[in-house]
């Protein structure tokens, strides 16, 4: 039975059969990946893994590229925490690495494809692969991560980079996952030099032999079904090992299927693919335990605490006062920043505030701040 047929059969069963086995704690760490081309600052990265003391196989996660160059600066590895957590729940050390020119990673237009009509995808992919290899090298030196049995997954431009990585697969890479992979989309159903992009995938297939999973939603506005099939067919024609999933339409734009909101739809495909070579155990760790709301919060404030718990943007913190005032902030650069900002927000409600939660954990009892301020605002 072909692998694609097995995946489709497994999919229906996994929706019902794969249930979280137990609650778990997760370890997170902000990192800078050393790389000469990135200068002293290195590449921005964020690691999420189970909190246990063993070495976890690496899941190397690669991001997309916005249509507007100016939007790259606002990108952050933290924004992919919810995605990374899904791999950590499955027993991997998930690393989100921001390639050169994205987020706080130096590099400018290092991965430029040039003019639209003659967009050159192979040189741009080579830049991305160099960044991913730097991340792998850094992880190989850690005591809590192993690159033996590692997987790679990427979305959009990161999907293209992931497939390019398999063309010169580093030791230890066992499978790769391509979510809506491609480059050069400048508007809906408008891709720069699409034939050149197909040729790039074909070139990767000539040397790629790692099993790969390709997932494209049928309503993807960046790389529509016909073009996505051309990518896949070219890769397979070169000898690449690929299973293609034409996923049902997702929301208004299937290009964003690979998201926190889309987890119920894409995780079963991934689980079926990882189970086939025995990379996924029977148990999937539960997300972090939901914290109880502070007792002094009224009903409306408890709703705000629920929003805090639902936020997938580390670092975050929730502060509360004895009279029910509160303040919380998410998406800060460090946990200290989140604590400071949430306390400041709370102190606009009340002169005395205490940190109640930091990220997904209850705060210690001594983290309190007092002030004479008493303005009422969150």
Could you characterize the architecture of this molecule?
It contains nine helices and 17 strands. It is of the alpha/beta class and 378 residues long. The protein has two domains: 26-275, Rossmann fold (3-Layer(aba) Sandwich), CATH 3.40.50; 299-362, no CATH class. The strands form four sheets. An eight-stranded mixed sheet has the order 2-3-5-4-6-7-10-11, with helices on both faces. Strands 13, 14, 15, 16 and 17 form a five-stranded antiparallel sheet that branches. It has a two-stranded parallel sheet with strand order 1-12. Helix 4 (157-167) packs parallel to helix 5 (194-205). The protein is globular. The N and C termini lie far apart (59 Å). 47% of the residues are buried. The model is unreliable at 1-22 and 366-378 (pLDDT under 50). GO terms for molecular function: carboxylic ester hydrolase activity.
């Amino acid at each position: 039975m072909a692998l694609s047929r097995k995946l489709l059969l497994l999919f229906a069963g996994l929706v019902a059969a794969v249930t979280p086995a137990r609650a778990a704690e997760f370890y997170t760490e902000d990192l800078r990946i050393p790389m000469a081309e990135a200068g002293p600052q290195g590449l921005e990265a964020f690691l999420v893994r189970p909190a246990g003391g063993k070495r976890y196989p690496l899941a190397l996660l690669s991001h997309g590229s916005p249509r507007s160059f100016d939007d790259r600066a606002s990108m952050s590895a933290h924004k992919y925490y919810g995605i990374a957590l899904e791999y950590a729940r499955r027993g991997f050390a998930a690393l989100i690495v921001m390639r050169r020119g994205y987020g706080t990673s130096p590099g400018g237009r290092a991965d430029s494809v040039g003019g639209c009509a003659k967009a050159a995808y192979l040189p741009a992919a080579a830049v991305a692969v160099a960044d991913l290899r730097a991340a792998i090298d850094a992880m190989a030196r850690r005591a809590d991560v192993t690159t033996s049995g590692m997987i790679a997954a990427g979305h959009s431009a990161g999907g293209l980079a992931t497939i390019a990585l398999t063309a010169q697969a580093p030791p230890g890479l066992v499978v790769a996952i391509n979510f809506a992979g491609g480059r050069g989309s400048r508007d809906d159903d408008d891709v720069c030099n699409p034939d050149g992009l197909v040729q790039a995938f074909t070139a990767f297939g000539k040397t790629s032999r790692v099993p790969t999973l390709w997932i494209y939603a049928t309503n993807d506005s960046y790389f529509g079904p016909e073009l996505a099939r051309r990518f896949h067919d070219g890769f397979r024609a070169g000898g690449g090992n690929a299973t293609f999933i034409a996923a049902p339409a997702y929301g208004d734009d299937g290009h964003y299927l690979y998201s926190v909101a889309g987890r119920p739809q894409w995780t079963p495909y991934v689980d079926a693919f990882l189970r086939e070579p025995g990379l996924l155990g029977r148990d999937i760790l539960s997300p972090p335990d939901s914290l109880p709301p502070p007792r002094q919060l009224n009903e409306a404030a408890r709703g705000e605490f629920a929003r805090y718990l639902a936020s997938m943007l580390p670092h975050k913190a929730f502060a509360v006062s004895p009279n029910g005032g509160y303040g919380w902030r998410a998406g800060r650069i460090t946990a200290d920043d989140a604590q400071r900002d949430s306390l400041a927000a709370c102190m606009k409600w009340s002169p005395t505030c205490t940190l109640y939660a930091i990220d997904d954990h209850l705060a210690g009892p001594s983290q309190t701040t007092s002030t004479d301020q008493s303005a009422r605002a969150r």
